[in-house]
Amino acid sequence: MRLFKSFFSPILIFSFLQYGTAQQTALSATASQKALTGYTTESSRNEQQWEQKFRAIPEPEQLRENMRRLSAFPHHVGSAYDKDNAEWILSKFKSWGLDAQIESFDVLFPTPKERVVELIAPTKYRAKLQEPPVPGDPTSSQTQQQLPTYNAYSADGDVTGPLVYVNYGMRDDYEQLDRMGISARGAIVIARYGGGWRGIKPKVAYEHGAKGCIIYSDPADDGYVPGDVFPKGAYRPKEGVQRGSVEDTDYPGDPLTPGVGATKDAKRLAISESKVIQKIPVLPISYEDAQPLLAAMGGEVVPEKWAGGLPISYHMGDGKAQVHLVVKSNWDMKPLYDVVARIPGSTYPDEWVIRGNHHDAWVNGADDPISGASALLEEARALGELLKQGWKPKRTILYCLWDGEEPGLLGSTEWVETHLEELRQHAVMYLNSDSNGRGFWRASGDHRLERFINDVGRDVQDPEKPNLTVWQRARLLRISRAGGAEDRGDLRRSGELRIGALGDGSDYAPFLDHAGVAALNIGFGGEGGGGVYHSIYDDFYWYTHFADTKFVYGRALAQLCGTAVMRMADADLIPLSFGDAADTVGRYLREVETLLKTEQDKQQEVNRELEEGVYEAVSDPEHPTVAPKREELPPFINFAPLENGSAAMKRSADHFERALAKAQEHGGAAYSSRAVQQLNQKLIQAERAFLDDNGLPERPWFKNQIYAPGAYTGYGVKTLPAVRESIEQKKWPQAEQGAQTIGRVLEREAGIVEEAAKQLESLDQGR
């Protein structure tokens, strides 16, 4: 998970802090007088008192100790310390009075057996493929327990070929190569990390005929260009390598058990039958190992934006630089250890609020994931203290620490697949965290939770800006980055911060994309930077020198997530915001309509240029230009089903929001009725309404029709994916079918929300 960075002028900082300070008292007073959404006046007052008690409990020193213990040794899947950590976590849950257990799964997890990258012409160089210990950093010397540098789920292979530079190795980079007349067919491509998820790089390379792929970390992206390198600074040293999975995007989880939990008796595919193992060998290297390879390459100088930060001229390759690449793995089954603690609900025990973070890492993983896992443990400890004081949640709460996230969301996916029917019946919300740093609150997720998480953010103080809540500080960041005075004014007047949409990259994906559970991902970041991601240098020493060194943002994360868990678990009425979701879907609809128009205009311009002979005029024998192909214009797509569904969702959402506002005005008396449980069940049904049993075209595991990771973005989200991705891939009939499918989904959602609005009105009238 990558953190964002912000840049303020001193004048902006001063003016925003003045504005925030002036608003703080008024906002706090309003919050204390206003009942929480979904609560009666009395239950709201009681809830806020318990939440204040909760937020006083988490301690930075305890967070520090959690991290020190959990990151003391490498703890990748299948390692001894991975199991040891799971057992320690289990013991902590139990010591706090929670009912907890370990659920185990058996998954395919390859580890390196042989790795070779060598330049064989025009000069000789053999890559070191090793990260050396750093003096003063004790855990960096644990070489016997560290996983070697590699990409999990690479194909085995022993290949030799000419080296071709492909920039970030994304699809648009290959389009540029095509225009330059450069082919990757039969070559080994070298791509730099960044620009998109790592697993897309070998996937697209294979589609363009490459026989192997090398990925390196360029110093322009996370090395000495943005800052001093470790141990002097936070950024990637010359020997640093980013490990990581390249499991393809058809489905997450165990490659051999798609759609079912990887229990001991599960039916498994043969390794050769799995769709998510890459087709060519791929290996990551450092920029120290990359420089001799890149320096040996000839041919054209790369486009200006493709040049990295090494002190060489970057060339595309002319066939003279030949590379030998070997990747061979041990294709072993390994155990996973998911740790799950349960706090039973007192009123609605069959409604579940789920909180999760993973505990496995590529090496020591202090930042990724222990910074988030430490906060989760502090939340659980604090809730245990509240239980001793007499607090009882109305809904059942599950606290989960997943194993196997790094190779491909293995632990969370197998757990979701195993408990799928229970989740679809009982789950109300899944709240995820992962890496956590210093700076600004960030949240992404299902937009039906947008108002809810905004409200929670208003109640948590920023640890380094005592006059601001984390919500206010995030809002000031948004204002500083707004495009103009009008946008800044809109943000100042707005009562909410728009949250982002979720793609892939952490354990929320199986809950949102497969089970249809409304999910959120939360963390802090943006101040400071770093380049130790997935390396041996992501450890306790690095984190305590360059990240959240005082662990105050870890405490803020625990306060924020724990408050959210309590508030959702204790609400009389599940506090979903259908108005935010309807507005967001309407925005997505306008985006895909604009996308189609853009594609039509683009192809029309290409066809015009071909008719006028533009490409022949600018081409020359030494630098041939490959003209694009003449194609039929993208056809008309009938968006009417999608437009009708969006309009129906907007109408029903408006109706529900009016009913909710009236119920709140009346002190939430309607929520005291026993019939509110039936209404809550209706709201849970509404969460699942975004699912279609057939899934996405060509990726049926992904059931959610509003949010999905892109087939060619990985971590990056594609909203209305059946339409958006089909347009991007010029699959026009599939795009039209997608519009019909999503239209039906939205109509179904609208029908459920309309029924819920009527139920709420009836309860309010009978109060």
Summarize the structure.
With 767 residues, the protein is α/β, with parallel strands linked by helices.
Describe this structure in words.
Strand 5 (188-192), helix 6 and strand 6 form a beta-alpha-beta unit. The strands form 3 sheets. Strands 1, 2, 4, 5, 6, 8, 9, 10, 11, 12, 13 and 14 form a 12-stranded mixed β-sheet that branches. This protein has a two-stranded parallel ribbon with strand order 3-7. It has a two-stranded antiparallel ribbon with strand order 15-16. With 767 residues, it is an alpha/beta fold. It contains 24 helices and 16 strands. Helix 11 packs parallel to helix 16 and helix 19 (578-611) packs antiparallel against helix 21 (640-665).
Helices and strands in order:
Elements: H1 10-33, H2 41-55, H3 60-70, H4 80-95, E1 99-121, E2 125-126, E3 151-152, E4 157-165, H5 171-180, E5 188-192, H6 200-207, E6 212-216, H7 219-222, E7 244-245, E8 282-285, H8 287-295, E9 322-343, E10 348-358, H9 366-388, E11 395-402, H10 405-408, H11 410-418, H12 420-426, E12 427-432, E13 438-445, H13 450-457, H14 470-481, H15 485-493, H16 508-515, E14 519-527, H17 540-546, H18 552-570, H19 578-611, H20 614-618, H21 640-665, H22 676-688, E15 707-709, E16 717-719, H23 721-728, H24 732-765
Parallel strand pairs: 3-7, 4-5, 5-6, 6-8, 10-11, 10-12, 12-14
Antiparallel strand pairs: 1-2, 1-9, 4-9, 9-11, 13-14, 15-16
